[in-house]
Write a structure and sequence with these properties.
By secondary structure, this protein is an alpha/beta fold. It has a 7-stranded mixed sheet.
Length: 165
């Protein structure tokens, strides 16, 4: 799987309240959540982000509460993937459960800037910064986790497995 797009950059400790503020948790509608994505970190972000963009962040992305709304909102906003130095453990699992690819790369996190265009090879764990003509490594996504992403998340993967049996 190859992902290519424009980067939006965020810092350390972006918590789930910054990703989708708690005041919007009265809905689980992905399209409604997407309208408010990252607005507490950048008020204009929901109007600036485009389908196919990527987020690059520093350490501990997705910390805070265990709400699944955060990766759902990111995916619904059209963001293809998140690259970060590290992820909060529950966000990491929730992202794969809903089919959002995420990549850990300290090197990429430190060198990629907002507005750069990058390409992520999920199979090989290679991130290419097209803007700077640089290449970084990320932890490759294990085959099973790639299956979850390809299926659209854990629920869709499970439905396919049940149907196939």
């Amino acid at each position: 799987m190859i992902l290519k797009g424009k980067v939006w950059k965020f810092g350390n400790n972006i918590d789930t309240d910054a990703i989708i503020p708690a005041r919007y948790l009265n809905t689980s509608d992905p399209d409604e959540l997407a309208k408010h994505i990252m607005e507490d970190a950048d008020k204009e972000f929901p109007s600036k982000v485009s389908a196919g963009d990527l987020i690059v962040a520093e350490a501990n992305f997705g910390c805070g509460s265990s709400r699944e709304h955060a990766p759902v909102a990111i995916k619904a906003a059209g963001i293809q993937a998140v690259v970060a130095k590290s992820f909060a453990r529950i966000f990491y699992r929730n992202a794969f459960n809903i089919g959002l690819p995420i990549f850990e790369s300290e090197e990429a996190s430190g060198k990629i800037k907002e507005g750069d265009e990058i390409e992520v090879d999920a199979d090989k764990g290679i991130i290419r910064n097209i803007t700077k003509n640089e290449e970084y490594t990320a932890k490759p996504i294990p085959p099973f986790m790639q299956e979850l992403i390809s299926a659209g998340g854990l629920i869709e993967w499970t439905k396919k497995r049940i149907k196939a049996s």
